[in-house]
Design goal:
This protein is of the alpha/beta class and about 210 residues long. The chain has 2 domains: about 5-125, Rossmann fold (3-Layer(aba) Sandwich); about 140-205, Arc Repressor Mutant, subunit A. It is about 55% helix and about 10% strand. The protein has a 5-stranded parallel beta sheet, sandwiched between helices. Helix 4 links the parallel strand 4 (about 80-85) and strand 5. Helix 2 runs parallel beside helix 3 (about 60-70) and helix 6 crosses helix 8 (about 180-190). The longest helix has 29 residues, at about 110-135. The termini are far apart. Residues about 140-145 have low confidence and may be disordered.
């Protein structure tokens, strides 16, 4: 399955050019013209990675990054900033906002593709490591005591989170839409007063029967 990218830029020509390069690179690409439009698209279906301009009207890249990092469902989405100025102040503010990488315009398309692939591979390795570590504590015959505060559907999603699966992988495994999985994760976080998926995983492991 192709990785889904969201490209955010208020310059139509650059937006089309970057989208074309990334589609040629084998990615499934969606575009937005500013941070507000990007947030709407993320809420509809979270991408695997976001490439965003920094300076945009309405909501700039810094504000977009801060909003995403404050949302448990979207806090781990990698973000790459494209900037016309290689200024240290912008870079510092970007990294403080939670950005993963910076690329200064003009840039080589191959470099952008390489950075994206490197970040996505790092994310995959992280998911694999979590799954392996959690799996070592959860043999196949493990039985859990279900928390009555969670619905059956929420519990199944929580167990999948504990196995290190992404929302997309959970959706495929449980035959749900990604949006439904995101809603379940949000409700689990709210009901249990958790701040992230790691806390969900730890909680599920703690519910093992002896």
């Amino acid at each position: 399955m192709s990785k889904r990218l969201l490209i955010v830029d208020d310059e139509p020509n650059l937006l089309r050019a970057v989208a074309a390069v990334l589609r040629d690179g084998g990615f499934d690409v969606t575009t937005a013209r500013n941070g507000r439009e990007a947030l709407v698209l993320v809420a509809q279906s979270a991408p695997d990675l976001i490439v965003s301009d920094v300076r945009m009207p309405g909501m700039d890249g810094f504000a977009l990054a801060r909003r995403l990092r404050a949302a448990p469902n979207y806090a781990l989405i990698p973000i790459i900033f494209l900037t016309a100025k290689d200024e240290i102040e912008d870079r510092v503010e970007g990294f403080q906002s939670g950005v993963d990488a910076y690329l200064t315009k003009p840039f080589e398309p191959d470099e952008l593709v390489a950075i994206i692939k490197n970040i996505l591979q790092r994310v995959e390795r992280t998911h694999s490591t979590i799954a392996r570590l959690v799996g070592s504590e959860m043999p196949e015959e493990t039985v859990f005591v279900r928390d009555e505060a969670l619905t059956e559907a929420e519990w199944r999603v929580a167990e999948s989170v504990a196995r290190g699966l992404s929302n997309k992988e959970i959706a495929l495994e449980l035959n749900l839409s990604i949006r439904t999985v995101e809603n379940h994760v949000s409700r689990i976080l709210a009901k249990k007063n958790f701040s992230n998926r790691v806390e969900i995983a730890r909680y599920i492991i703690s519910q093992k029967t002896e």
